[in-house]
Amino acid sequence: MLRRRACLFVAVATIATGSGVVAALPPIHGALTASERAERGIAFAPESSCDLATATAVGARHPAVDQLVLMVTDDFAATSGDVEILVRSADGTWRCRRGPQFAMFGRNGTRPLLARRSGDGTTPAGVFPLATVTAWDGGTFSMFGNRPDPGVLADYRPVRREDCWGATAGTARYQHVVERPGCAGPDEWLESYGEAYSHAAVIGANLDPISGDEPGETPYAAAIFLHRTSYRSSGAPKATSGCVSLGYEDLVDTLRSIDPALDPHFAIGPRDWLRNGTA
Questions:
Q1: Which residue would you say has higher pLDDT here, 53 or 16?
Q2: Over the stretch 193-231, which tens digit does the pLDDT of each residue have?
Q3: Which DSSP category does 237 fall into?
Q4: Are 69 and 81 in contact (CB under 8 A)?
Q5: Residue 43's pLDDT is what?
Q6: Which domain does 58 fall in, by range?
Q7: What domain count does the chain have?
Q8: How many other CB atoms are there within 10 angstroms of residue 138's CB atom?
């Protein structure tokens, strides 16, 4: 049964991924203390070149949204693309907040949410809100991490040892943060991901309502995050299991730029599909 419920996280993988692949990440330097909170307000980047046409098209279909995080690829098969942030100005036009940053997508590309299934290796395509998640202990958050709050404007949860992101379809824990330390795949024990889950934001794909946390329901997506990119031993960036990932510095800057007061949404998928479609 579909029901309205706010649930979980955003992530990156460092020690092991849901598929059991070990991913090496370069160390992060700096004190393990929370950073000063980002200043609220719209700081445009006129020197950057954002995709104003796509933002305008998506924004026209979502008039209440004043901030878009565009996550665009060339086509549905692409495993890499760009992430950029745009803000709707007072006169209704879209302006660039952060220009294009190189990003990785699912190892099997992107696919519209209702056409995909959990574990198929695609990133859900569509327009999704920054989610608000309620954990097993009653805490609510939209971003989380194994490192202290980097100064984001959204509610941030430092990962607890007990935090398990449920990803087993047909169970009550699917798309919920449950108290289950040491949980095994496909569920994700967040602490075990170490620096890969240094910081993350929750992309609201299949979160409100959830489909898949009761037997017989279609498990469209679980644990879809914006997180830190993992790398091969050669230094090449790895595609994800279904999330979108950025290099560490770009990730922190992006998370600090997301403002819950602007009803931020993630617009994910091929550029032409987002521009000309109905998402």
A1: 53
A2: 888 889 999 999 999 999 999 999 999 999 999 999 999
A3: B
A4: no
A5: 64
A6: 52-276
A7: 1
A8: 6
